[in-house]
Amino acid sequence: MKNWEYHTDNNNDDLKLIALKRSARVNQIGVNSLGKVEYHVVDDKSKIVKGGQFAVLDNPIHIVPEPFLGAQPQGIKLNVKTELIPGVFLCYEGKNRQHLFQGVFQKAIEISQQNASFTFVWHHEGVMYVICFKEKEFVFGNIFNVEDMAECIYFSLTAIQESTISNLDFEFLIDGDSNWIHGYSEQLLPMGLKPSPVQHMELYNGYYNSPQNHIDSYLFQLVSCELPEEY
User: Fold this and answer.
1) Vertex 123, ends 101 and 112: CA angle to 5°?
2) Residue 185 maps to which CATH number?
3) Domain count for the chain
4) What is the reported pLDDT for 177?
5) Is residue 224 located within the same domain as residue 168?
6) Are residues 50 and 124 in the same domain?
7) Largest Cα–Cα distance in the chain?
8) What was the pLDDT predicted at 126?
9) Residue (of 223, 175, 174) closest to 195 by Cα position
């Protein structure tokens, strides 16, 4: 995968930084007080600017209605929570870390403004997020570790069935690297399903050439998300 770097003349001292480290690589974005990206790097870990916030990608999550906070079964490790929508919390183990799922969920909220019922599937390096809205209501959200395309198809179609949006006219939106999007879409065509790649806003001039733009925009979303609180 190619490296990537974008920066303005800013010295990074006053930027709000968010970074995701995975597979010996880092994706870090710096945003100024006006909400504009002034720094972005996708490279090895030595390129990271010190300071700022970090995100986790594959930590297991539990989506918990407020009345059930603290009532999880024994053996489940949770130490932070953050409110996804009023009365519904994203809970996980990741002290002092934001979860990329929160940024992806913010995109799902945007999608829900235009589509009453939809499934949104996001994938990166064997990690898949599935989010379903039914008639404007959030009805399903989870993370899956997947080894191949067959598992991607199985878990996403199971979510569609369990959320019962398959009984409705629903939108099917996906995000991931270009190879995954192509392979996933090809597998679904014989089933009569035609997922559409989600559209990202342009974070800065030339952004669409970034090698991880299926991650960048969600890191950018995290900058404006509330930080997790102790569970």
Assistant:
1) 55
2) 3.30.420.40
3) 2
4) 95
5) no
6) no
7) 53
8) 96
9) 174
Q: Is residue 81 part of a domain?
A: no
Does the pLDDT at position 50 exceed 90?
A: no
User: Based on the domain organization, do 181 and 121 belong to the same domain?
Assistant: yes
Do 124 and 183 reside in the same domain of the chain?
yes
Please write down the HEC assignment for all residues of 126-183.
Answer: CEEEEEEEECCEEEEEEEEECCCHHHHHHHHHHHHHHCCHHHCCCEEEEECCHHHHHH
Q: Is residue 213 part of a domain?
A: yes
Domain with 161, as residue range(s), is 116-199
Tell me how far apart the alpha carbons of residues 6 and 64 are, in angstroms, rounded to a whole number: 38
| 182: Cα within 13 Å, side-chain hemisphere | 3
Query: Across the chain, what does the average pLDDT equal?
Result: 93
pTM of this structure: 0.94
C-alpha to C-alpha distances, 6 to 47, 77, 164, 205, nearest whole angstrom: 12, 38, 43, 9
The answer on 224 and 170 residing in a single domain is no
Token readout for 68 is: 């059930």
Q: Which of 66, 70, 103 lies closest to 87 in space, CA to CA? A: 66
Q: Which is it for the CA torsion 114, 204, 125, 25, positive or negative?
A: negative
Instruction: Please check whether residue 93 lies inside any domain of the structure.
Output: no
Q: Tens digits of per-residue pLDDT, 122-143?
A: 999 999 999 999 999 999 999 9
Q: Mean of the pLDDT values across residues 141-154?
A: 97
Is 143 in the same domain as 191?
A: yes
- Report helix, strand or coil for 90: strand
